[in-house]
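New to this. Explain these tokens.
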Amino acid sequence: MSVSYRQPGVVLTDRRFTVPLDHADPAGETIGLYAREVVASDKADRDLPWLIYLQGGPGFGAHRFVGRPAWLGRALEEYRVLLLDQRGTGHSTPANRQTLPLRGGPAEQAAYLAHFRADSIVRDCELIRAEVTGGAPWTVLGQSFGGFCAVTYLSLAPEGLAAALITGGLPSLDAHADDVYRAAYPRMERKVAAHYARYPQDVERARRVADHLLHHEVTLPNGYRLTVEAFQSLGILLGGGEGSHRLHHLLEEVFVTTPRGPELSDAFQEEVQGQLSFAGHPLYALVHEAIYGQGARATDWSAERVRAEFPQFDAAKTLSGDGPLLLTGETIHPWMFDADPALRPLRETAELLAARTDWPALYDPARLAANEVPVAAAVYHDDLYVDTSHSLRTARAIRGLRTWVTDEFEHDGVRAGGPRVLDRLLALSRDEV
């Protein structure tokens, strides 16, 4: 039974759905999906069109808003909004170190997780659309990985869409994960250089932390093994509009003096473990490279292999000189499954996913070239997470897609920009600008 309740300015309704684990076997095993329906309080009794929001990730449940901030307020001016917890996330049937052993061993777990990519998410959306809208097409708003899902939606079921709005999430249609990361590491280097230009005092601070970690074993309070590579991965913060400032604040007071000499402060360790732990979103680590898998070529820990082609990211070599320590970005590595207690039991499962060689295609170039759905995409120039050149090449491959290329925002522009980003995309999709 659906339950409705109120927050300031909105009425929310908890919605639950049952879908096949494998849409090719609709009579087989099922899993549960959860979503929040949101409507403006003064429009709760109206017959409104629907907008479904697909969160970035993979592996994150839909954002839990309070009231109608950011883009949501703009959407609620004319839509009922469905905030979907994609399969395996949030209040949908969970997939984590606690639940995956119910599947069996690593082979069974990997086979299960192979159904947690964009193609399955789109088929989930199509199945629940009939119940939510009565069969009417809806508008999809896809942020980051949600945008990847939107392009898959245009490939698999465009008849279900009234429009597609994409923010920071136009994927390459044919790039292997290696191509994605070869383009990504130079962006990471540029973002780190920009951070140090803004906060030059952080150059020495980061070097000091790296040197400490190279010479000391550090285990965070939650059991996470903090290595220098793990510290470097905090560069993922630089993809957000406030990320550089957040990183600077993190580095301001790293060390305290103790009877044993300088040690990493409790406050620093507490903050870092919150940033690094995958306890709340293990799917992000497990299927991250799989979102690029198409065809017979394995991803094979692509980010780790490609990193070796960029020796400037080697911390030990950096510290042997006087250069700045480089940080990394949105990359997943095998060592994370040793460092993080939330991932350690899933290391073999992750290895099997990395070795998989039978990934179905996620995009249909011919169907995209004949697209008739109104599509608009915000492309954030020099986005840390999604390569601009890849996005623009895909934009040219989707018939009728209109782009807004901007360096006003980082990857989180749809949140940080309030109503402006969604307002612009809606206008583009309606040919009003």
Notes: Residues 177-355 form one domain.
